[in-house]
Amino acid sequence: MGVRLKFSNFAYMKKTILAIVAVMLALAPAAARGLKGKVIYVNPGHGGWTINDRPHATMNYEEMDTMSFFESKTCLWKGLELRDRLEAAGARVIMSRTTNGWVAVGDKNATANDRVETYADENGQQQLITLEKIACQVDSINPDYFIALHSNATGGGDGKTVNYLLYMYRGETGNDYAHGSIDRARVAFPYAWDNPLTVWTSSSPDDMYVAGDLTWMGGTPPGKPNVLGYTGWLAVLKHRVPSFLVEGSFHSYQPERQRLMNRDYCRMEGVRHFRGINAWFGGKPEKHGYIAGTIKSADERVDNPRFTYKEGTDDQWLPLNGAMVYLLNDRNVRIRHYRVDNEWNGFFGFFYLKPGKYTLVYEVPGYESVSEQVVVKKDHTTYCKPRLHRINH
User: Fold this and answer.
1) Based on the domain organization, do 244 and 309 belong to the same domain?
2) H helices of 261-335, where?
3) What pTM did the predictor assign?
């Protein structure tokens, strides 16, 4: 009788424990379940080729040349890479746009390269630019996560040596009007900040710039509430979904703008945003790794009025246009190569590498050839910043 009683108590306790566990799992944050089946909304900022899409001259191109810098173009590059990584992890991704050159109906600044936004293009993909339309779509879909991708500029004009990472959510600092926005941003911040190829002038994982838009922008939010009844400074965030707008860097810092001219550099930012989202949902780490770097002269500084750099930083050294970077495996066999572009950034990158040991060989006519051994780890980017000496004849 005693034995049966003990078994009965044990069975009861087991059922109770299982019930408690079930309740805990039901109440647990999404962070414990991975990305599979999650709905992520990605909004690449801006959209067209107008003066409202943050055009800037670069060392090679004049302002308004579509080959020059447009925030709309670089944000799309980031967003497409982020989409690919999220979908590979099992998420459903909705993007406000998938191509560049879209403007709102009646935009007086539209150019010959622009098209009017639509709810669906010939492929069935929405192409939304109007911020209120995006907010309404987000609110109706109610995704698990929303991110708006941008880059920043100083109010003091171009060429300022200011460059930091900023996350803004709707509300006041410390009071997110869409609850969960602060927590998401604070998880994502260290991943996005992990970019030693740029020069951060402030902010860090120990001093995160994660702020409410009302506090950061200051004062009363402009205009009336949108059609959904939400107020705030940033119209794209006027919805109920936990969300933020990330200013990934300052394109008014000219060396950073030159880096953003490289699509693969922007893709690497997309990878970093993926890591932050994946961490929030407790997703599995990627099985592959990456290599990214900048190759520059060890002897020559940049001297150009469109390349104002922060004194004493790596940005003072001349990027080596056209450099060849060869990737060798652990058997010393060349398996890939990367030709550095001519946009004065020196950037090179290798994606989707198996973890292991590799050798990088850097070759530039007129400079000493250099090689270095690197280790690639899964779900990690190995950064390299080689500097080559000129050969004196």
Assistant:
1) no
2) 263-280
3) 0.91
Q: Are residues 247 and 381 in the same domain?
A: no
Q: Are residues 260 and 353 in the same domain?
A: no
Distance, CA of 77 to CA of 273 (rounded, Å): 13
* Alpha-carbon span 306 to 308, nearest angstrom: 6
CA distance 199 to 302: 15
- Residues 156 and 190 reside in one and the same domain: yes
Tokens representing 200 are 């951060």
Q: Are residues 138 and 227 in the same domain?
A: yes
> Residue 77: enclosing H or E segment and its boundaries?
helix 71-88
Say if CB 98 and CB 82 are below 8 A apart.
no
What is the rounded distance in angstroms from the CA atom of residue 349 to the CA atom of residue 124?
Answer: 33
Residues 263, 270: Cα–Cα separation, whole Å = 11
Sign of the Cα pseudo-torsion (83, 86, 87, 92, in order): negative
Rounded CA separation 181/236 (Å): 14
d(CA 10, CA 166): 53
Q: Which whole-number Å values give the CA distances from 325 to 234, 294, 321, 385, 392, in the listed order?
A: 42, 10, 12, 12, 22
Are 370 and 229 in a shared domain? no
- Give the structural domain span for 313: 289-388
Please count the residues of the chain: 393
For residue 15, being part of any structural domain is answered with no
The CATH number of the domain holding residue 317 is 2.60.40.10
The total number of structural domains that make up the chain: 2
Average pLDDT, consecutive stretches of 10 residues, N- to C-terminus, the chain (393 residues): 31 37 38 85 98 98 98 98 98 96 95 89 81 96 98 90 98 97 98 98 97 93 91 96 98 98 98 98 97 98 97 98 98 98 98 98 97 98 98 78
Contacts with 186 (C-beta within 8 Å, 6 or more apart), sequence order: 208, 210
* 3-class secondary-structure state, position 94: strand
Q: Please check whether residues 104 and 197 belong to one and the same domain.
A: yes
Helix (H) or strand (E) holding 359: strand 356-363
